[in-house]
């Protein structure tokens, strides 16, 4: 039982007339909830509320008393109620409460008291009932309530409440007590008698319609019994309705009405005309109000609802179809589209019989719409029908849909109309008069297109219609093309030749028909109900013409000079061949000979006509289509044929050195045909691999530059097209299918074999590109392999690596000391590496980069040493490989201590104890400026052992990549590396001290440390940016979420405090550089939350960076960060605060001479700034306008265009007090 | 503004397909791109917002009041001249259109340019003093600003 204090609080808040309405609703809900859960008994409520109930303040009373109705009352409180009722002057509302609570109070008393009742109270009661929709009420309660509300319908003052109440009660489910049929009838009768819907306000109308809808939905029997009355009532109610929301419901009511009275002689029939007159006036749906209003109902929804209402009963047919046909002739395209859509929908539902009488007029209108809406056929418009979805042709699309529907519905009569149509026949007859495509005048082309579409759609509608169309038109077309049918494989007579051009029109129509029947066959395969037999008339006709058609299509591909006609013929010829080759074999057995001849024709174009771009492209496309058709239909005969004639020939082309056909085209052909089928892919990749190795050895061993170039192309094709496409195959995981998964593995192994075999490399200067291409291919191939395969590959690679003389073998590594290492670096800079060794180490690095984390790497110690020494010579892949290793090595290994598997900690120990750098804890503490420096600086590294600054730079790059690997997996050691890099960044201020301490002889001045500082700053770019070459998902990197955000928030305080402390301008500019790198790669959300702190720094960095030309890229990325802050709402506040410095800085960048994008972006930022509160930016207005007017004369167009926008935006910041000066100011600027 | 429309039913043309600018693949950072006709036309027509015909909600481009060919330009001698064709002859709105064009050009071109738009029927727009005087008339300025349209809403 609830504590009375608790709910009294709600009552208080409810009756408090100063409270907001939402508060009152909340209180009401709270009390209702208590009652529902029986936490509060009605007796208690009444008793405790007596004070409120008897108060003289009528407002409070009216608000309060209805709260008593919640519960079906127990008899125990009858007396309580009775006494209250009698003792005070209750108004309507309270009595309603009483009615609900205690039915023993006689209705006469109630009635009597109701007479001076308050109407608002009824509404409150009604609304309360809505809330109690799932609370069971007993029948007696419901009966009284519904009776009460039904009567109230007559009282216009209480109408709203009555409507809501009726609605709430009628919607109740049977398990909580619902209104009976008799009561519902009473409601309906009262509704018809009392309500003048159209004289009510919008909300009341909506309620009226909702009540009707509910009545129709839940009490159809009641409505059915009411007969004419209700139909008439509805006509009256909806006539003249204009509100979209109400209309949505009225349309639905009409739909329900039609469902209740389906009888063609029933009450609806007599009112059909009247009802449709009302409905029809809404078509087409058109909103007169401007779009600015918040229209809750979308035009499309409303239009759909009206369409459903139109189609709800065939009784509307005599009125609807003429109306729609009339609207179809409208000049407004949208109306046309709507009419067509309605016609399609309605004609299906009205039925064939009713539609038959309209066939003639419908056909005339349709023809008219089609002939006028379709563009003329241009040479490029012979694409399949499915591509016709573009907006301009919506009319045509809808018209064709309608045509298809009516032809399907009424084959006989509609087809006769089409077949007998004068215009169509005329068009077909006239095509013979124009021999060549170029000779056909525009209107005829248009007509031809329309006829083609019409025939195609009718043929596609059904088998019977297809037969009919073929019988009548196909033979005529064949005659026009002078083709003769033949049975079987009879060879054409030798004398038979095509003289001159074929009739384009006939060719076009012929292809339309072929497409149509192919669609029909393919479509029917899915359905079992209609199977197309191979003995249909049209299929027999097609078979007999099969051969001559193919010949004709092949013939059209002969090139001529006239380009426009040429393209048109080429399009149809290739398309025709493609259709012939892709007819399902079970249905139209295109003889093998013909299939082969089609393939050969297309292949001869691929190999010979490569200078004709369009023809070549289309032929390739056709081949690809044929290939995927053959593959999906598992037609082994054709597949073998295709493989032999197409795939193998292309592969042959690739390996042959014949240079007539450009390599790029060969590669395009294989990369498009390859992915169509597994079978084809296998032969293609094998052929490609062979070609790659031929060229590679030619290039590497004999130094053949041409071979090197083509090898690069081949490798790029392999990595960009063929390796990526094989992850999925028709929805299957491709690398699980037997056969192909082996390919990447074999490729990688073969590469190593190849290198091992050729000990003598003679490649010249051009090898970098080739090496890059090979590395990419190796990386991708290794990344695809499984762990076991990867283990084999790495072992193989290691063997080759150790066999090379340059790299230290396992035994020799232990004794290397730093000076020796350094000396060896001096002797063997990367450029002095033998070519072969450079290749070996690069490819080895590629393998390491692409390994999966689970793959075990043997000999980690040796590998780390080799990579470390190599990276010091400036070999970036080695650094990336080290980064990948530390990213993926397993953490502390437990069970595998004994094996040769190395844990991350062990590897890091090797790396950090390397003689390349030594632990340092003296320098850092000073410069990081942290009081507890011991923590940060303790395990920092020092590069000072390396005397040459170049080596130091390389070491920094190496550290950066390793840092990136650790950062991405979220390992704490990254802190040490970052601090090492950071100390190098600050080495300027440290240089004097360092040089004294470590190298007293060497004079280390600023010039000397500058490259080191710069590379340290750029190391942050490596750390933060995403790399394509390594450490990404493709190469199985371990990536911890939000690592960038984390790094950003750790580094920012350090950077900011260092900037503040630094007193050398060089150091500061380097710090800003690092800062710029970090923020430009941090996700914007992280930046935005720190915007306030960052903006001043960001602006400073912009000014600092713009001093050096080489920084333009960095400036640009910082500007992008700034514009992200400017355009985001969360950044606004910080921007407003710093408006002045931002604008000043941006104005400086408007004239930044070294990069157009910087100027353009700066101006765009200024445009964004113009949206800030005017009081903030107005002081800068004239300054901005002056600077912008200079930008109007920028050498680059894009900048000028932005400047115009910007100037316009800033000019609009009006000075309210002196607008005249503003405009005169424009002239002053102009004069200046 | 005017209570009665001067040309109540103007012919509306579809926007003509724009000449597409071919941008070279590798842009020389320091090369100069001269102002050309299309750029002026762009300024006058579609980017920012179309200059609106004061009488109709159509843009001047749609009404063919301005076309690309009607722009004479000598970028080296800093000279630009726009000839526009009012929808009907002796259109009293020609003055306002001319004013709009002129103001728009003045606001959008470098100050070194001399702007002289010219209607077929009304020559007074070339008079600099008159334009200045016109812009001191608050009603006219409001009208011009309305024609030029808000740029970013």
UniProtKB/TrEMBL annotation, chain A:
User: Member of which family?
Assistant: Belongs to the MET18/MMS19 family.
Species assigned in the record: Rhododendron simsii (Sims's rhododendron)
Note the superkingdom of the native organism.
Answer: Eukaryota
Q: Name one Pfam family in it.
A: MMS19_C
**Keyword NAD found:** no
- The keyword DNA repair is annotated on this UniProt entry: yes
The UniProt entry's GO biological process terms, in alphabetical order, are: DNA repair; iron-sulfur cluster assembly; protein maturation
Role this protein plays: Key component of the cytosolic iron-sulfur protein assembly (CIA) complex, a multiprotein complex that mediates the incorporation of iron-sulfur cluster into apoproteins specifically involved in DNA metabolism and genomic integrity. In the CIA complex, MMS19 acts as an adapter between early-acting CIA components and a subset of cellular target iron-sulfur proteins.
Domain MMS19 N-terminal, which positions?
A: 121-372
Q: Name one GO cellular component term.
A: nucleus
Q: Gene3D superfamilies of this UniProt entry?
A: Leucine-rich Repeat Variant
Per UniProt, subcellular location reads as: Nucleus
Residue ranges annotated for the MMS19 C-terminal domain, each copy included: 762-1169
- Protein name, UniProt field: MMS19 nucleotide excision repair protein
Q: Which UniProt keywords apply?
A: DNA damage, DNA repair, Nucleus, Repeat
UniProtKB/TrEMBL annotation, chain B:
Residue span of the signal peptide, if any? Answer: none
Q: Highest taxon of the source?
A: Eukaryota
Show the InterPro entries listed in the entry. FSCA_dom_sf, MIP18
Asked if tRNA processing is a keyword of the record, the answer is no
| GO BP terms, alphabetized | chromosome segregation; protein maturation
Designated name of the protein = MIP18 family-like domain-containing protein
Which of UniProt's keywords are assigned here?
Chromosome partition
Gene Ontology terms, cellular component aspect?
intracellular protein-containing complex; iron-sulfur cluster assembly complex
Q: What family name appears in the similarity comment?
A: Belongs to the MIP18 family.
């Amino acid at each position: 039982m609830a504590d009375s204090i608790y709910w009294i609080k709600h009552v208080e808040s409810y009756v408090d007339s100063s409270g907001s309405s939402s508060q009152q609703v909340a209180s009401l809900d709270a009390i209702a909830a208590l009652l529902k859960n029986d936490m509060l008994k009605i007796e208690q409520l009444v008793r405790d509320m007596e004070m409120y109930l008897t108060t003289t303040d009528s407002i409070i009373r009216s608000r309060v008393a209805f709260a008593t109705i919640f519960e079906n009352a127990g008899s125990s409180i009858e007396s309580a109620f009775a006494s209250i009722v009698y003792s005070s002057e209750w108004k309507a509302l309270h009595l309603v409460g009483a009615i609900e609570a205690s039915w023993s109070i006689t209705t006469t008393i109630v009635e009597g008291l109701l007479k001076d009742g308050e109407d608002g109270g009824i509404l409150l009661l009604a609304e309360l009932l809505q809330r109690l929709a799932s609370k069971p009420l007993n029948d007696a309660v419901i009966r009284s309530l519904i009776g009460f509300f039904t009567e109230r319908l007559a009282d216009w003052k209480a109408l709203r409440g009555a409507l809501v109440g009726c609605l709430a009660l009628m919607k109740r489910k049977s398990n909580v007590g619902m209104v009976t049929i008799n009561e519902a009838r009473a409601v309906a009768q009262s509704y018809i008698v009392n309500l003048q819907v159209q004289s009510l306000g919008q909300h009341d109308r909506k309620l009226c319609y909702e009540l009707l809808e509910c009545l129709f939905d839940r009490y159809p029997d009641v409505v059915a019994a009411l007969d004419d009355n209700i139909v008439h009532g509805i006509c009256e109610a909806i006539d003249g309705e204009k509100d979209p929301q109400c209309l949505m419901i009225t349309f639905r009511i009409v739909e329900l009405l039609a469902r209740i009275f389906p009888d063609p002689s029933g009450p609806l029939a007599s009112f059909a005309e009247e009802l449709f007159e009302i409905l029809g006036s809404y078509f087409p749906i058109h909103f007169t109000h401007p779009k600015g209003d918040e229209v809750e109902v979308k035009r499309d929804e409303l239009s759909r609802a009206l369409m459903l209402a139109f189609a709800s009963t065939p009784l509307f047919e005599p009125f609807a179809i003429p109306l729609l046909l009339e609207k179809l002739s409208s000049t407004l395209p949208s109306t046309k589209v709507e009419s067509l859509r309605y016609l399609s929908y309605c004609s299906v539902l009205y039925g064939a019989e009713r539609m038959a009488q309209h066939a003639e007029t419908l056909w005339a209108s349709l023809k008219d719409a089609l002939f006028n809406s379709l563009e003329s056929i241009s040479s490029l418009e012979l694409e399949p029908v499915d591509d016709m979805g573009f907006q301009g042709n919506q009319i045509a699309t809808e018209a064709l849909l309608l045509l298809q529907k009516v032809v399907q519905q009424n084959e006989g009569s509609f087809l006769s109309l089409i077949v007998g149509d004068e215009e169509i026949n005329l068009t077909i007859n006239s095509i013979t008069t124009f021999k060549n495509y170029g000779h056909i005048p525009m209107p005829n082309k248009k007509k031809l297109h329309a006829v083609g579409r019409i025939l195609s759609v009718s043929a596609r509608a059904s088998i019977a219609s297809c037969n009919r169309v073929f019988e009548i038109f196909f033979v005529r077309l064949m005659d026009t093309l002078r083709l003769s049918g033949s049975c079987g494989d009879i060879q054409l007579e030798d004398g038979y030749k095509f003289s001159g051009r074929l009739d384009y029109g006939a060719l076009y129509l012929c292809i339309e028909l072929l497409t149509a029947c192919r669609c029909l066959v393919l479509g029917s395969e899915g359905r079992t109900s209609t199977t197309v037999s191979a003995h249909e008339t049209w299929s027999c006709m097609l078979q007999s013409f099969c051969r001559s058609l193919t010949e004709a299509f092949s013939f059209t591909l002969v090139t001529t000079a006239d380009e426009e006609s040429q393209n048109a013929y080429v399009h149809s010829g290739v398309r025709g061949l493609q259709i012939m080759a892709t007819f399902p074999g079970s249905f139209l057995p295109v003889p093998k000979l013909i299939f082969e001849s089609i393939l050969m024709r297309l292949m001869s174009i691929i190999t010979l006509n490569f200078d004709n771009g369009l023809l070549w492209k289309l032929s390739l496309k056709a081949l690809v289509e044929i290939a995927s058709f053959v593959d999906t239909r598992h037609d082994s005969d054709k597949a073998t044929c295709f493989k032999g004639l197409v795939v193998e020939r292309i592969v042959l082309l690739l390996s042959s050195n014949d240079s007539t056909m450009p390599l790029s085209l060969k590669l395009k052909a294989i990369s498009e045909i390859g992915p169509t089928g597994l079978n084809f892919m296998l032969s293609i990749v094998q052929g490609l691999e062979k070609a790659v190795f031929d060229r590679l050895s030619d290039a590497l061993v004999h130094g053949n530059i041409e071979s090197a170039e083509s090898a690069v192309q081949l490798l790029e094709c392999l990595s960009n097209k063929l390796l990526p496409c094989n992850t999925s195959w028709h929805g299957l995981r491709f690398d699980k299918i037997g056969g192909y998964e082996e390919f990447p593995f074999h490729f990688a192994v073969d590469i190593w074999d190849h290198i091992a075999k050729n000990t003598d490399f003679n490649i010249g200067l051009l090898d970098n590109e080739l090496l890059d291409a090979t590395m990419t291919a190796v990386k991708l191939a290794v990344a695809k392999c499984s762990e076991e395969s990867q283990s084999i590959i790495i072992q193989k690679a290691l063997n080759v690596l150790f066999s090379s003389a340059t790299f230290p073998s396992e035994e020799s590594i232990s004794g290397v000391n730093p000076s020796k290492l350094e000396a060896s670096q001096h002797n063997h800079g990367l450029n002095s590496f033998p070519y072969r060794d450079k290749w070996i180490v690069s490819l080895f690095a590629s393998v390491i980069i692409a390994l999966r984390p689970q793959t075990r790497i043997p000999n980690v110690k040796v590998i780390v040493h080799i990579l470390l020494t190599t990276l010091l010579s400036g070999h970036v892949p080695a650094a990336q490989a080290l980064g990948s290793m530390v990213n993926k090595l397993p953490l502390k290994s437990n069970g595998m201590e004994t094996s040769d598997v190395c844990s991350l900690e062990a590897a890091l120990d090797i790396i950090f104890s390397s003689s390349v750098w030594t632990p340092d804890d003296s320098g850092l503490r000073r410069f990081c400026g942290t009081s507890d420096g011991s923590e940060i600086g303790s395990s920092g590294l020092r590069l000072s052992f390396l005397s040459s600054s170049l080596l130091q730079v390389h070491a920094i790059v190496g550290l950066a990549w390793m840092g990136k690997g650790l950062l991405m997996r979220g390992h704490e050691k990254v802190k040490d590396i970052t601090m090492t890099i950071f100390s190098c960044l600050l080495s300027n201020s440290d240089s004097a001290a360092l040089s004294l301490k470590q190298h007293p002889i060497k004079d280390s001045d600023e010039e000397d440390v500058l490259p080191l500082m710069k590379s340290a700053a750029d190391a942050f770019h490596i750390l933060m940016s995403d790399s394509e070459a390594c450490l990404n998902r493709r190469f199985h990197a371990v990536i911890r979420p939000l690592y960038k955000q984390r790094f950003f928030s750790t580094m920012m305080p350090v950077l900011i405090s260092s900037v503040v402390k630094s007193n050398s301008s060089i150091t500061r500019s380097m710090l800003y550089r690092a800062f710029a790198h970090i923020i430009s790669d941090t996700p914007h959300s992280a930046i935005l939350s720190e915007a306030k702190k960052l903006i001043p720094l960001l602006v400073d960095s912009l000014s600092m960076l713009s001093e050096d030309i080489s920084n333009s890229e960095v400036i640009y990325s910082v500007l992008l960060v700034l514009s992200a802050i400017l355009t985001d709402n969360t950044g606004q506040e910080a921007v407003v605060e710093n408006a002045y410095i931002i604008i000043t800085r941006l104005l400086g960048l408007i004239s930044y001479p070294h990069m157009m994008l910087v100027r353009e972006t700066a101006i765009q930022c200024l445009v964004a700034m113009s949206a800030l509160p005017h009081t903030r930016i107005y002081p800068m207005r004239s300054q901005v306008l002056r600077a912008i007017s200079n930008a109007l004369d920028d050498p680059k167009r894009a900048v000028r265009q932005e400047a115009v926008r910007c100037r316009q935006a800033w000019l609009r910041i009006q000075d309210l007090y002196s607008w005249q000066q503003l405009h005169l100011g424009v002239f002053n600027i102009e004069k200046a | 503004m005017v209570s009665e429309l001067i040309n109540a039913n103007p012919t509306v043309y579809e926007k003509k397909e724009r000449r597409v600018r071919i941008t070279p693949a590798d842009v020389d950072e320091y090369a100069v791109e001269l102002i050309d006709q299309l750029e002026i036309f762009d300024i006058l027509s579609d980017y920012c917002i179309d200059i609106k015909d004061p009488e109709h909600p159509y843009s001047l481009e749609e009404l063919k009041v301005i076309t690309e060919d009607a722009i004479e330009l000598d970028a080296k001698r800093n000279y630009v001249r726009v000839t526009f064709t009012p929808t009907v002859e002796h259109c009293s709105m020609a003055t306002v259109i001319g004013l709009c064009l002129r103001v728009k050009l003045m606001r959008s071109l470098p100050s070194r340019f001399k702007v002289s738009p010219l209607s077929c029927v009304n020559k007074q727009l070339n008079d600099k003093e008159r334009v200045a005087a016109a812009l001191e008339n608050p009603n006219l300025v409001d009208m011009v600003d309305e024609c030029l349209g808000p740029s970013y809403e």
